[in-house]
Amino acid sequence: MSFLPMRLIFVLAYLCVAAAFSGGVWWYGYREAFDQLEQQGQADLALASDRLSGQLQRFREMAVFLADHPTLDQVFETQISTGDALDLLVDARDRSGALDVLVVDATGRELATAQQTVPRLHAGRPYFERSLDGAMGVYHLYSDRWARRAFLFSAPVFSGDGPVIGAVIVAVDVDELEFDWRGGRQTIFYTGDLGVVFVSNRTELLYRSRVWPPQIRGEGGEYPSELLQPFFDFSENDLAGRTYWNVDGGRYLPSKALHLQLDLPVIDMVGDVLVDLGPARQQANLQSAVAAALFLAFGAMLFLATERRRALAEANLRLEARVTQRTNELQKAQGDLVQAGKLSALGQMSAGISHELNQPLMAIRSFAENAETFLQRGQADKAEQNLGRISGLAHRMDRIIKNLRAFARQENEPISDVDIIGVIAVSLEISDAKARQAGVTLNWDAPDTSVMVRGGEVRLQQVVVNLLGNAMDAMVDSPLKQIDISVNSVNGRVVILVRDTGPGIAEPEKIFDPFYSTKEVGVSEGMGLGLSISYGLVQSFGGVIRGRNHDAGGAEFSVELDAVEEQT
Questions:
Q1: Which of residues 121 and 350 earns the better pLDDT score?
Q2: What is the pLDDT of residues 478-494, one digit of tens each?
Q3: DSSP state, residue 217
Q4: Quick one: which H or E segment has residue 177?
Q5: CA torsion, ordered 473, 477, 481, 487, to nearest 10 deg
Q6: From CA 425, how far away is CA 406, in angstroms rounded?
Q7: What is the 3-state secondary structure (H, E, C) of 379-420?
Q8: What are phi and psi of 213, to 5 degrees?
Q9: What is residue 567's DSSP assignment?
Q10: Which of 134, 330, 455, 534 is close enough to 463 for a disulfide, judged by CB 3.0 to 4.6 Å?
């Protein structure tokens, strides 16, 4: 066998090994990116579902509140609407943004409406019949009365003796609920018991039925037959126990998407999200290309070394140049992966805070059932106490969601006057779940007045959250886990101090260097970018951030910012 065929066989064998290696890297990278997209999709679906449920919850509460309002007693007694009753309904509609508010007697006849439209009969409708049974009725439909999609909440009205004498129905405009989240990054839609898409951030999905031929009426909703369309074509596939779809749904839907679902029993719907797998493939392609380039570069340099033994020094120089070039490319790719990992961490934090809403939600359900029982027994004072607790819990859930929304948005606003006390309060609320899980005590004695500084609200929240998170991670093995936060004014500057009871800082001069970390390899959050990013953010505000070992033990970080002069 001649030398040329042997060399050709060697080259072909090496190329096969390179292809197998890059293919393995591609598969591993795709699986890793797939996991990140799944976590991000679950967080996005949970956040969108909590937002939808929270928006609808206030209308549900309003129906319960109006059903117990004394102004409506005269309407049920006389079967005639009064000026006071109409004023109450109109005021409730205007303040809440409801589509309409209706008062219906026990026969299903409308006694009063906020819009004062032509009365209609509600007898036999599932939501009204459920109210007659003494429970809250929930329904959704396309209404020719209002020429739009609507959610209906029907709350029973009890007489003084106990029996149900009618209902208060609150109609909610679904278009208004969807307005601020249409066209979002992920494709999200919600279906009822008939399998018809009723709410979505993609208008082209509305009224598409997953059952064909479709049903137009059920226990949870109804639709005009002329609006219903077949669901888009898709095929289900499985990857490591996860379901993804190959979709033929037009240019605005991903062609290949991870499919996740979430039950929403409070509104009798199921939420679905389609997470585009394109970014996962792109990330896997990037990793595979880098691996193949490095592998082929090494092979090419090895081949040149064997062919040019007489020019070993020159070959070594070329090898070093190519390795440096490929290493730079790999570092750039790693930087892209670090950024993707940080975005995924934000999605995980959103899902964790969303999980914190389950406990007040269960309490709300319990208080609602208790209130219903007290109302049936005629104990209105105790029912009012339960409704008050429900309102407090709902406000608490709303505050958590608003804080998460504010923290998650990308702030592009210029530097302005910011209340650092409010920034710290929101940061503590965001970090509270992690602190309680880690057994860390957060000590913060907030001043009674605002302390204004120059900066960006969301970016300052990121700095404080980073400092709190680093402090918690540093105290994993500490017997005493405590973080003290304080704010002081010194010579026209505001100083924020964050001190922990951990082991302290091993190398204070390196803590703000990019990629410097004392955390174990493999910990997703231990990439050494948090303090480096915080350093850049504080400097962009004209401030200074420092870290040192406290004399009494533990680490202490200080953030100095320009104070805002009080206006006289």
A1: 121
A2: 899 999 999 998 888 99
A3: B
A4: helix 174-178
A5: -40
A6: 13
A7: CHHHHHHHHHHHHHHHHHHHHHHHHHHHHHCCCCCCCEEEEH
A8: -65, 150
A9: P
A10: 534
